[in-house]
Amino acid sequence: MSLHSAPGPATSRLRLLAGLAVFLALAALLEPLAGGVRLFGWTLPELCPFARLGGPCPGCGATRATLSLARGDWRAAWASQPAVFLFLGAVLAPHLPVRPERGRRLASCLALAGAAGSILHFLQS
User: Cα–Cα 20 to 30 A to 16, which of 58, 93, 96, 106?
Assistant: First the structure.
């Protein structure tokens, strides 16, 4: 028996809930802006390496979209980066009440579709 066995379903759900709680707390504190995010009235520096180098980024808008989604503003999330909905599905898919291999396969497909969607969004803008 291995000391590092895979976590059981209860542990996996607990980790998901803990991550969701941290994410929602951050989303409540961070305010999405056109060029970054604001925390307690302070505009945080740009962290995207593409933006810092002055170039376009295929994932541009993902932070704003994720924060908007967490705040319940679906329209703003879609306008910022539509692929964030696919990435959300990829995060949640392994926790669906289906066989684990199906959840992982669905998560992989959604992540690939999200990456493709990000690139398409980038090419259209």
Answer: 58
70, 23 in Cβ contact below 8 A? yes
Within a domain: 94: yes
**Residue 16 forms part of a structural domain:** no
Asked if the structure places residue 50 within a domain, the reply is: no
Cβ-proximal residues to 14 (8 Å cutoff; 6+ apart), any chain:
none
Q: Would 33 be classed as within a structural domain? A: no
Please give the residue that has the higher pLDDT: either 125 or 109. 109
Range of the domain at 119: 57-125
Number of domains comprising the chain: 1
CA distance between the termini of the chain: 53
List pLDDT tens digits, range 52-107. 777 777 777 888 888 888 888 889 888 888 888 888 888 878 777 778 788 888 88
